[in-house]
Design a protein that fits this description.
The chain has 5 helices and no strands. By secondary structure, the chain is an all-alpha fold.
Length: 91
Amino acid sequence: MKWNMILKASISDEKWTLLAKNILTDVFPNTEELKRKYVKYSNAGKINQETIRYYLNMGRKIPKRRKRAYSGILEELLRGGTERYDIEDGN
């Protein structure tokens, strides 16, 4: 699954569940290009993690808001948006 393609297509329940699983188990980001831009969920700050869980739940409960929720998740995972990545991620 190409992560940037999610924004261009509607997100099915199955894709959303897979996305949530991959984020929460640190599978995403999974390429070097994405790793340079985003941090893993476990390396995000506590507030960032809570916000990501909020967006994942919002997308699960309200399918029409999945694109907005996905954008919010990516925003929370941006390298510049979290304080812990530089210590724990090593990049």
